[in-house]
Write a sequence for this structure.
């Protein structure tokens, strides 16, 4: 039975998706799910662990069913038990579905910021409660630990329909969605396909088999994170004479940036595909879908926000910046989240945490994240300024810059890199280039080559873990 005031998720999804939502709702009702319960769901659950559902659709019908029944779904993807405890506490999860060491739905969750410290009954200051039917998304890698954001079904559906219209999704599309539904952008990318009536497959599978699946299944839209596309580009199937997938018309990157070598390699193998990067943050479903044809992979240009969204660049005092001045991106519209609790009125403008500048003509260029600024040599700068030069050089594959404080309490710039597609880093050449191009205070004191960059459960680079690795 659907709770009053909660939208019928299955009223706008087509065919088997509606049937899967109904089947999951029936199973949850038999399990005794109560209105208002905050239910954590491991998005990596296999079909064998789902109460009911369609293997191709993964946990999406389950999340929709929880919301439809007036409970509050919390999609989760945490890498470690300790991280999971902190996430459960931050989101005030009441119960969790089994999988990856999670507890049973019948048991209360006991997450906290420290091991063995139960969350305890009742609300805690700074945590998200969630109204019936809302979906709570966790940001596990916030600067002060995990934080949560609330999105109403109406906001998520608006985001899905906006994205579907922007990409021209239709009922004859077949989508392979490899991005995690534990992020709001990944969740809405999947919902966009369902809202258009497209055939959708949420089974990620190994990168080595993606192009073959696209070809065999007639995939027309491929959705992944930048890290996923980097892994895809590095697989042997994309080498000279590799198998392409001529039916793919759009590949959609859900995340911050994709390096130019990866973009170039994917263009060789998916020559008919329109490359698009979906930009958003924890505060919004999405800000813009940037077509990156001719784009250099570095700083993003937000030429046109998604329909219904108003975007500006603001100073800390709330006034709009002058052209060329760095400020923080502010967004308003129907794709803005309904939380956190320090903003009681849904729909009010939010600061996304993105740094940006605007030109005389109003064109906005992103310039990194406010919570990732590095302070070195008495100067503040975005790690993007270092990463873009490194990635564009072709001497390395992926690159992430961050600051680390030495024994003298002086912050040093560190650059973690992976091998490029040809398999060999050219660190000496990179060092020469960085010293030629960057101001002295931006030049890394240390460059560390890693097999791969550590990532959070949502696919973002885990800068906290990188600092631990570097020591």
């Amino acid at each position: 039975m659907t709770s009053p005031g909660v939208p019928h998720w299955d009223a706008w999804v087509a065919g088997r998706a509606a049937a899967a939502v109904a089947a999951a709702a029936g199973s949850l009702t038999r399990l005794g799910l109560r209105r208002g319960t905050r239910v954590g769901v491991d998005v990596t659950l296999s079909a064998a662990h789902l109460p009911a559902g369609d293997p191709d659709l993964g946990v999406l019908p389950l999340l929709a069913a929880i919301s439809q029944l007036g409970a509050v779904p919390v999609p989760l993807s945490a890498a470690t038990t300790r991280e999971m405890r902190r996430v459960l506490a931050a989101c005030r999860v009441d119960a969790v579905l089994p999988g990856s060491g999670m507890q049973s739905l019948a048991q209360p969750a006991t997450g906290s910021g420290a091991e063995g410290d139960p969350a305890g009954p009742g609300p805690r200051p700074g945590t998200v409660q969630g109204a019936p039917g809302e979906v709570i998304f966790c940001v596990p890698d916030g600067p002060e630990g995990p934080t949560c954001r609330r999105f109403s079904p109406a906001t998520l559906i608006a985001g899905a329909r906006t994205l579907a219209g922007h990409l021209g999704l239709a009922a004859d599309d077949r989508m392979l969605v490899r991005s995690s539904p534990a992020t709001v952008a990944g969740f809405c990318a999947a919902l966009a396909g369902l809202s258009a009536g497209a055939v959708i497959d949420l089974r990620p599978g190994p990168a080595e088999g993606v192009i073959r699946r696209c070809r065999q299944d007639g995939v027309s839209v491929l959705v992944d994170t930048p890290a996923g596309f980097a892994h895809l580009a590095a697989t042997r199937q994309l080498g000279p004479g590799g198998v392409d997938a001529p039916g793919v018309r759009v590949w959609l990157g859900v995340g911050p940036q994709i390096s130019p070598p990866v973009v170039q390699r994917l263009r060789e193998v998916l020559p008919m595909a329109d490359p698009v990067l979906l930009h958003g943050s924890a505060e919004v479903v999405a800000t813009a879908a940037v077509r990156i044809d001719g784009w250099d992979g570095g700083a993003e240009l937000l030429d046109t926000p998604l329909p219904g969204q108003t975007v500006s660049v603001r100073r800390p005092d709330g006034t709009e910046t002058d052209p060329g001045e760095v400020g923080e991106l502010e967004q308003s519209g129907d794709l803005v989240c309904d939380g956190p609790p320090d903003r009681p009125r849904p729909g009010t403008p939010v600061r996304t945490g993105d740094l940006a500048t605007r030109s005389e003509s109003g064109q906005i260029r992103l310039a990194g994240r406010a919570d990732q600024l590095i302070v070195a040599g008495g100067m503040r700068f975005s790690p993007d300024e270092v990463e873009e030069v490194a990635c564009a050089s072709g001497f390395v594959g992926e690159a992430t810059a961050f600051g680390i404080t030495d024994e003298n309490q002086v912050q040093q710039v560190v650059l973690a890199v992976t091998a490029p597609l040809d398999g060999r880093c050219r660190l000496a050449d990179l060092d020469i280039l960085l010293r030629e191009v960057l101001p002295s205070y931006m030049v890394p004191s240390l460059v560390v080559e890693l097999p791969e960059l550590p990532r959070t459960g949502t696919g973002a680079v885990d800068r906290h873990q990188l600092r631990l690795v570097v020591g």
Observations:
- The chain has a mean pLDDT of 76.
- DSSP finds eleven helices and 21 strands in the chain.
- The longest helix spans residues 15-30.
- The chain has three domains: 9-151, 155-333+345-367, 373-470.
